Amino acid sequence: MKPKLLIAIFALAIAATGCMTHEAAGNMGEKLDISQFYLPNADASKVVSVSSTTNGPVGATVYIQTHAVAVKETGPKETVAKFGEVYAFSPGFVAVHKDEPTLIHFLNLQPDDNHDFMLYAPDQVFMKLLLPPLQDTAYVFTFHREGLFNILCAMHQPSMAGQILVLPPRPK
Question: Do residues 51 and 127 lie in contact, with contact meaning Cβ atoms separated by under 8 Å?
Answer without folding.
Answer: no
